[in-house]
């Protein structure tokens, strides 16, 4: 989860002041605080470090505190949202009131003329709020009102500008050189405690959380990261910014040793685009995808952790024009393998729109290479989720039509039935009328009203079709069948075990 939190009447504690010796040399051409020559002598020696102090003294002046002042509309009626609102709603006047709120985070200066990088969520308004001002506070306690140059919610990055010159700054490094086990240092402002420094190692270099789509790829570290560290830099032992601290994974909301940073290789091109006042352009195929779990891998007869499954192809988009079909397993994109660490979304998003790329898919047991001209990803694209009906009522195991070994009873889908269950009347398939509670189909979420459109990528139109295809799978000694099912016009592949 991302932590950008609003606080009413928050107390901002001052950051650590830098001494005169730490300020940039103003008598000669200005250089970055993490200039290789300057850091080489200050960095700890290889292996277990004796101290990070000299290196931190060089880097800390370029790390800043970022705070926002926001106007938040709150409901003045204390009974709002409760059963008593109807009876007591007028006692509080019933009108929303406006209060002041704040948010706290970190950032770092990337140029001598005052460009600052942070997370988008650090400066984004809270619910029912508007941001009135953004303040950047340096380690020597100087405060500057910042202008928002650009924001990119998709990557959670933002660029600010403070007016002045000869600011201490740092440069991005090459996060591709980072290795698991390398020492790293995080500098930021957790809980408003300015100038806090923590150290740890890199725990993973390609951490995918499964929640953030095209930019779900992070450097994981056990360096302590908490609320308020968001937007701050993660340094390697050469003083390079190899990541931007963005999130923590925690059951408690506090640090448990799993911090996530946006890799520099991913952040730097976006930062440069935002500095120019431009909007990042991302590649787009126009497909719905799902990972291949063990059941789907068995039903397709392929290795697990190999590619991703296409469960939807949007009409008129790049994928359809390239000939990609629902049920294809995408193995490679632009000559790069699709894996759990390098997802299809990530690979496509990082291709320039308009570029022609090869896409290798597995279709009916054979590899097919297609060529796609990548489209432009919509700015507010949200991939459709899928959730089976969670009705709790028991389903009768008696199934006069359908397939007992699959554990479902079905009937042909007519336009009238389709309209009644919220499905396009032109949809072909069979609709489930009952599910055996002891079946794997029930465990996988299949319920009454779910439409089955295909079995092992062969379309079905009648209960007889379903029974025939399931029997074919059984004769082929397959323990599972791959169903394409639809609920309220949202489709997904589900692998279902065959019963006795």
TrEMBL record:
Residues of the signal peptide: 1-21
EC primary class: hydrolase
Keyword terms of this UniProt record: Hydrolase, Periplasm, Protease, Repeat, Serine protease, Signal, Stress response
Residues involved in substrate binding: 121, 156, 228-230
Transmembrane spans: none
GO molecular function terms attached to this record: serine-type endopeptidase activity
Superkingdom of origin organism: Bacteria
Keyword Magnesium: no
One GO term (biological process): proteolysis
Domain PDZ, chain residue ranges per copy: 286-352
Listed SUPFAM superfamilies: PDZ domain-like, Trypsin-like serine proteases
Major localization listed first in the record, in broad terms: periplasm
Subcellular localization(s) per the UniProt record: Periplasm
Reactions performed catalytically: Acts on substrates that are at least partially unfolded. The cleavage site P1 residue is normally between a pair of hydrophobic residues, such as Val-|-Val
InterPro entries in the record: PDZ, PDZ_sf, Pept_S1C_Do, Peptidase_S1_PA, Peptidase_S1C
Pfam families: PDZ_2, Trypsin_2
Gene3D superfamilies recorded: 2.30.42.10, 2.40.10.120
GO cellular component: periplasmic space
Keyword Protease set for record: yes
Enzyme Commission designation: 3.4.21.107
Stretch list, region Disordered: 382-402
UniProt record similarity statement: Belongs to the peptidase S1C family.
NCBIfam families named among the record's database cross-references: degP_htrA_DO
Protein name: Probable periplasmic serine endoprotease DegP-like
Organism whose genome encodes this protein: Sphingomonas baiyangensis
